[in-house]
Amino acid sequence: MTPILALDDVSKHFGPIEVLHGLSFALYPGEVHALIGENGAGKSTTMKILAGYQPASSGRITLDGAPVTFDTMRAAEEQGIVMIHQEFNLAELLTVEQNMFLGRELRRGPFLRRAEMQRQTRAQLARVECHADPRALVRELSNSDKQMLEIAKALSRDARVLIMDEPTAVLTNNETEILFQQVRALREQGTAVMFTSHKLDEVKAIADRVTIMRDGKVVFTGPAEGLSEQDMAEAMVGRELSDLYPVNPGTVPGEVVLRVQELDVPGHASDIGFELHRGEILGIAGLVGSGRTEAMEGLCGLRPATGAVEIEGESVTIRRPSDALDRGLCYLTEDRKTRGLLLDKSMRENVTLQALPRRAGVMIDRAGEERILDEAIRDFDIRGARGVRVGNLSGGNQQKLLLAKVMQSEPRILVTDEPTRGIDIGTKQQIYRFLRGLADQGTSVIVISSEMQELIGLCDRVLVMRLGRITGQLAGHDITERGIVRLAMGIAQDPDPQTDSKAGQGEATPASDILDSDRPT
Amino acid sequence: MTQTDTATAKPARRLPPMTVIGPVVALIALIIIGAMLNPNFLGYANLTNVLSRSAFIGIIAVGMTFVITAGGLDLSVGSMAAFIAGLMILVMNAALPVLGVGLPIIFLGVATALVAGVIAGLINGLLITKVGIEAFIVTLGTMGIYRSLVTWMADGGTLSLDFGLRTFYRPVYYDGILGISWPIIVFALCVIVGEIFLSRGVFGRHVAATGANAEVAHYSSVNTTRVRLATYVLLGLLVGVATIMYVPRLGSASQTTGILWELEAIAAVIIGGTYLKGGFGRVWGTVIGVLILSLIENILNLTDYVSPYLNGAVQGVMIILAVILQRGAKTGK
User: Fold this and answer.
1) If you measure CA to CA, which chain A residue comes closest to B207?
2) Are residues A148 and A290 in the same domain?
3) Min Cα separation B125/chain A (Å)
4) Are A231 and A56 in contact (CB under 8 A)?
5) Which of A325, A346, A361 lies nearest to residue B11, judging by beta carbons?
6) Per the domain annotation, does A256 fall within a domain?
7) Cβ pair A435, A423 in contact under 8 A
8) Within this chain, do residues A191 and A315 fall inside the same structural domain, yes or no?
């Protein structure tokens, strides 16, 4: 069987950094192909190259056996290759029909042929068994209907290859099942379907062929037949540790400084309970969307939450971020560009923003601010001209500035969310050293991360979240990628009995149970 | 003051010189043109007259600078001023039989104006921050409400302060110390305090941070709701102050009082270099904006080359030019 679309030794670099190394795999007609890998393994970039959104730096892409280059996504679309992005690409305030024909409306002279477009829309939707009214506003549709509309829209362009980036991330189990029925129908019709998912059970359920990526390389591509979820998880992970991470002195953690019980963040996380000790680095793992960020934001007063929180033995009520700060609890956001830094302002204004009311009172002491910035530049090794817009700093320097800013308020409990996202390895190492140093001096640190190596290398203990709940915790030598992946993905079978019970029970396990029975002794 | 501020604003925004000195250059050019066209232009009488008249808009524009810097907008200030003026006159006239002409009744009027201003600002601010309606819509609504209320209170005509009371209150507009009239003094005080708090105060920093990116401010433990609410209350308070200076001038209020003040105040803020989208503001710039707008009107009135009826057109050109300059500054990096 000849593949419709194939990558042959494709590489991609952004500037001097190569992110994809010699990828080769093929999509066949009438096959469902799953692309899996950890966050940052290069899945999205690979899909974008396949769909013509980004050019490959080297290597060949073949369509029906002949080499092609897609200069634009439109060129790819004309060849029948359509990609559906993770975020819906729909105009919410237009109707279903208007979205379906957006940019290629049927017309008679200057007038739209609305009746005809509605009829065709209804027919296209019927193909995917979606019963949304063509006249309904997209805003009013359910997520699954929106997903179906995206798919119907793709099919109406005679897609031969349908590429979907995490199509089930926003869908409920039922909706996922409906989607899969349609995917099976497409397979019958000879369409090649490729999708990514973090849910390995789904991959197992529907994929005919699986490609597994790790660190920008294909580590496996072949039939899904005979491949277990366990095999997939193991192939996705499995790198050795390096001295990227600071030495953990292995000191016994001090007294409990933070005790959280039954923390609920409506819509995102529920029944979150854990304890944090003085001088401890506690990791929180879980897939994007597992509610880990929202749970911590709820804890720090950044979004509405209920629950019992004790800091240093005292019961506290945290309604807004400044309440948390008063208690020495501070959150460092994962999103430095839209939540962390004022990109149009200078370093000086950014570095003092959080600590200003505490340090300054009513009036600002400019000279004092300059001194604080001097210290921050020295302590955190921030490179870049002093007066420059913060938006013009490199990602690594922005991250160090953000860390410096948060540290100005002298937190005793620091929650860092993806502290090393999108920064180079040297800066990563500096940040790891800094966090370990903080812990050694008695600050308690929580690290939320999607990078399992980071959690393993840095943390004393790791909590794993799935679907808004803590599904288990790992400590010391039990912190392994396999262990984390298993808990994060809710894979039931597990040779290790300690984590097994947690993963299996999930919802039924009360938080206190995890705290008591899983605490390392 | 001007010098220190440009110096400190520079490294922060990397403002190209034109946006810093542009309004200043325009103002100086206007003064030179005015002096050449009419020898009376730089006379004491003319300058006092221009400055006193621009004080009302100016005081309001200081508050508007805070609102706009925090990313907000207030269209209601003109009709709010008219409503407060009407309310003040009604309250003072009603209290006249009890209190008689004297300082107590003036204090009553002043208190009425300040309290009404704060409440009006609070209403705008709460609707915008707590209920979460767009500032444009809320203040468009309250603009209509206040305008209509003052018309209703005056029964379609004019509310006049009692004659004896007016004579007693008049000096607040027309007198002053050392030849500087009270409105100019109050305006100057508002500017100095406003400038210091916006550029040097923690509150001003939080206002700019909220306007630049409310999300970042929130994640930096800034109570953005309170900051935005405070800017509207401050503006309401300053509208009250402006009204206190305005009522003794004519001693009356009608449905045409304060018409288009909101647009003049917003225009002055923008000409002065504050970003309409928020995130960066400067009170001294707003003062220059106010002066530019008043001088254009004054020069057209004093000279015959351009009809004073074209005042609005010339002001309009200035506003658009100012925004083009700002955009050049933002994209020219």
Assistant:
1) A353
2) no
3) 20
4) no
5) A346
6) yes
7) no
8) no
pLDDT of amino acid B7: 37
Q: Residue A45: inside a domain, yes or no?
A: yes
What total number of domains does chain A contain? 3
CB A484 within 8 A of CB A305: no
State residue B18's pLDDT score: 60
Q: What is the pLDDT of residues B91-132, one digit of tens each?
A: 999 988 888 888 888 899 999 999 999 999 999 999 999 998
Q: Are strands A66-68 and A5-14 parallel, antiparallel or unpaired?
A: unpaired
Q: Which of A206, A236, A266 is the last residue of a domain?
A: A236
**Residue ranges of chain A with per-residue pLDDT less than 70:** 15-17, 39-40, 170, 172-173, 237-244, 250-252, 359-360, 422, 424-426, 492-521
| Mean pLDDT, rounded, of chain B | 86
| pLDDT given at position A209 | 93
Residue A336 counted as domain residue: no
- What local confidence, expressed as pLDDT, does residue A246 receive? 79
Taking the CA of residue A366 and the nearest CA in chain B, the distance in Å comes to 8
Q: Determine whether the interchain pair B14/A389 forms a contact, defined as Cβ–Cβ distance below 8 Å.
A: yes
Tokens of B131: 């209920």
Decide if A405 and B220 are in contact by the 8 Å CB cutoff. yes
Asked, for residue A157, whether it belongs to a domain, the answer is yes
Domain termination site, one of A379, A409, A439: A409
Fold observed for domain B2-331: ABC transporter involved in vitamin B12 uptake, BtuC (1.10.3470)
- Which tokens sit at B285? 């710039």
CA-nearest of A7, A81, A74, A77 to A46 is A7
Beta strands in A254-386 (DSSP E): 256-265, 269-277, 281-286, 306-311, 314-316, 329-332
Where in the sequence is the domain holding A356, given as residue range(s)? 341-409
Q: Does B13 touch chain A (CB under 8 A)?
A: yes
Pair (A278, A369) in one structural domain: no
Do A226 and A253 lie in one domain? The reply is no
Residue of A325, A364, A405 with shortest CB distance to B205: A364
Give A-chain residues touching B226 at CB under 8 angstroms: none
Give the amino acid at A402.
L
Inter-chain residue contact A321 with B201, CB threshold 8 Å? no
Provide, as residue numbers in chain A, all residues whose Cβ is less than 8 Å from the Cβ of B13. 344-346, 389
